[in-house]
Specification:
single chain; Rossmann fold; five-stranded parallel sheet; about 35% helix; about 10% strand; globular
């Protein structure tokens, strides 16, 4: 009996790599989907390719969407990436480093990505989409919350042929209630090589992580706690 197909949103970071490993372990044939959306650097897409190959994705598609035409984010325009916002290492979990939504938030990004994943899932005959959003150790983005994922899944049931015909597509967010440390522990259990992944928002011209942005600090916090 063939394995069920799933679309995996794969950014190249440690969260999405872990999600791909989870989907694979659950018996899905994994079709990985990444985006060249006008982000500041190529390093995360290079990481996504490495991860897709290493973890045995059946297919890996990289789509071009130029969100730089809109801007509105430090990741898609020339707005400086915030540094040294001091995510506390050793906390049980991290609230957003500040109460405001940071300028690294890309407007509607997860809605855009999930919409493309939804379209591809229908074409593949897949009833499952996996995304690596997290609502504990994260930067405070509104499209990483459980209520958002639930709402998108409801919308998908109404907006697709699959949903109308009684085969609604499920949105899996297996990391949503996990700390970064828990995510890393899970990935290590599943054989994820995190040296392949990349998390930095603002690497230098050589692709070296800055170590100071929110993503770098959350990553460092996760490894510090996972290895403690």
């Amino acid at each position: 009996m063939p394995h069920p197909r799933a679309v995996i949103l794969l950014s190249g970071g440690l969260d999405s790599a872990t999600v791909l490993a989870i989907a694979k372990a659950e018996g899905f044939t994994c079709h990985a989907l990444s985006f060249r959306y006008g982000q500041r650097h190529q390093a995360e897409l290079d990481a996504a390719r490495r991860v897709a190959q290493s973890l045995g994705a059946t297919q890996h598609v990289v789509l071009d969407i130029d969100l730089r035409q809109f801007g509105g984010s430090a990741l898609t325009s020339d707005i400086p990436v915030p540094k040294d916002r001091h995510v506390v290492v050793g906390a049980q979990h991290a609230a957003p480093p500040h109460s405001d939504i940071p300028v690294t938030y890309v407007p509607a990004r997860n809605t855009i990505f999930l919409s493309f994943a939804l379209a591809w899932a229908e074409v593949l005959g897949a009833q499952d989409i996996f995304i690596g959003v997290n609502a504990l150790d994260y930067s405070g983005y509104p499209d990483c919350r459980p209520e958002y994922i639930a709402a998108f899944e409801r919308m998908a049931g109404l907006a697709t042929k699959a949903g109308v015909e009684g085969s609604p597509i499920k949105i899996h967010a297996p990391l949503i209630h996990m700390t970064k440390a828990d995510i890393i522990r899970k990935g290590r259990e599943l054989g994820v090589d995190y040296d392949m992944t990349f998390s930095c928002y603002d690497p230098d011209a050589h692709g070296t992580a800055c170590g100071r942005c929110d993503a770098c600090q959350l990553r460092a916090k996760g490894f510090a706690e996972a290895l403690a």
